[in-house]
Amino acid sequence: MIKEIFEHRSIRKYLDKEIPKAILDEILLAAIRASNTGNMQIYSIVVTTKKEIKEAMAPAHFNQPMVIQAPVILTFCADFNRFNKWCYLRNAEPGYDNFLSFLTAAVDAVIAAQNACLAAESNGLGICYLGTAIYNPDKIIEILDLPKGVVPITAVTIGYPAEIPSLTDRLPVDAVVHYEKYKDFSTEDIDRIYADKEAREDSKQFIKENNKQTLAQVFTDVRYSKVNNEHFSKVLFDVLKKQGFLD
Question: What are the φ and ψ backbone dihedral angles of 44, each rounded to 5 degrees?
Answer without folding.
Answer: -135, 155
